[in-house]
Amino acid sequence: MKLYFNYLKILSFYLFLEKFLINSLFYYKKIHIGGIKMKKLLSLLLLSALFIFSCGNKSETKKEQGTTAGAKEKIVTSVPPLRWLTQKIAGDDFEVISIVQPNMNHELFEPKPSDLKILENSKVFFTYNMLGFEETISNSLSDKNKIVNVLDGVDKNLFIKGDHDHEHEHEHADKKEEEHEHHHEHEGHGGIDPHVWFSLDMMPKVAENIKNELSKLYPDKKETFEKNYNAFITELNQVKAELSQKMASKTKKSFMIYHPALNYFLKNYAIEEISIEQEGKEPSAQQIKEIIDEAKEHNITTILVQPQFPKQSAEAISKEIPNSKVAEFNVDKENVFENLKQFVDYLN
């Protein structure tokens, strides 16, 4: 596009010179330039203009090439929490991206051709290998060697069985989705709860797997990855201590959330997670009544709803519970530490 505009400039410059010289020849009789000489002069001026603009274009091209050469290399991950953790280890020299964005529903997400193109052009794809779309992507990639399961080597005892059937459907209030049935896997492989990014006990091994893979791909930055990993583990231990202290002071032993997602964090604490959705579906009128009774029994005042899910049921329940409120809680938020701190504050 820039080259196109440069040629327009040259053409305009040429026409200006031609008009100028013709006018000069018309008005000033002292200037005697034959037709042939006139053409030679115009050709010379045109070549000069082309040289000037081509030099400018080369300069701009070199500048653009320098920008491209200086661009950060992309590392691809599956979901925002994994993007956040990978960025912690990779550092500022890399641009880590997530196929799923924080405002999307990872359970209904279907990769587009553009997503697959990004993955094909990347050196690595970090995945939990727990969600349906992750498996779809892994099966679609031509180079399987770039797929890295960050849960490799994690203690199997840390995994939690999902609360619902392995496959179920979500019914959404959104008009575009009301007319369709969405079948997807809520649990990971073998009916395992896929929200593993909330497991602070798994994080050290996940971070180590990321560090080791990046060190293989970029050996010249191995020391940086090691340094970032150690800093992350230090931060992780500090956050765990802070959250444990806050959780120890909690008097409420249960809370309500539309879509269950926090069992990995709660497994170390005697706090019950009450789900509004029933087997992956919007609750019926009878089920809502039962949920209201349960909420009153447990003195629940805060009901959490992920922005990717409908709020109608939660709001209907809240209206029947004195002094209660509906609060938004995004399980796909990137910064897991900040997300868990926010959740603990909700429990007050």
Textual characterization of the structure:
By secondary structure, the protein is α/β, with parallel strands linked by helices. The protein has 3 domains: 2-69; 73-241, Nitrogenase molybdenum iron protein domain (Rossmann fold), CATH 3.40.50.1980; 251-346, Rossmann fold (3-Layer(aba) Sandwich). It contains 12 helices and 10 strands. Helix 7 (203-217) packs antiparallel against helix 8 (222-248), helix 8 (222-248) runs parallel beside helix 12 and helix 10 (285-297) crosses helix 11. It is globular, with a radius of gyration of 31 Å. 27% of the residues are buried.
Which key phrases capture this entry?
single chain; alpha/beta; Rossmann fold; four-stranded parallel sheet; 12 helices; globular; disordered N terminus
CATH superfamily of the largest domain: Nitrogenase molybdenum iron protein domain
Helix share bin: 40-55%
Number of domains: 3
User: What is the top-level CATH class of the largest domain?
Assistant: Alpha Beta
Q: What class, by secondary structure content?
A: alpha/beta
CATH topology of the largest domain: Rossmann fold
Main sheet: strands, sense, barrel: 4 strands, parallel
- The overall pLDDT, averaged over residues, is 79
Strand order of the largest sheet: 2-1-3-4
* CATH architecture type of the largest domain: 3-Layer(aba) Sandwich
Count of distinct strands:
10
Give the N-terminus to C-terminus distance in angstroms: 58 Å
Radius of gyration: 31 Å
> What is the tally of helical segments?
12
- The residue ranges in which pLDDT falls below 50 over 5 or more consecutive positions are 1-8, 24-36, 49-68, 164-187
Broad shape: globular
Report the β-strand fraction as a percent range: 5-15%
Please provide the ordered H/E string of secondary-structure elements.
Answer: HHEHEHEHEEHEHHEHEHEHEH
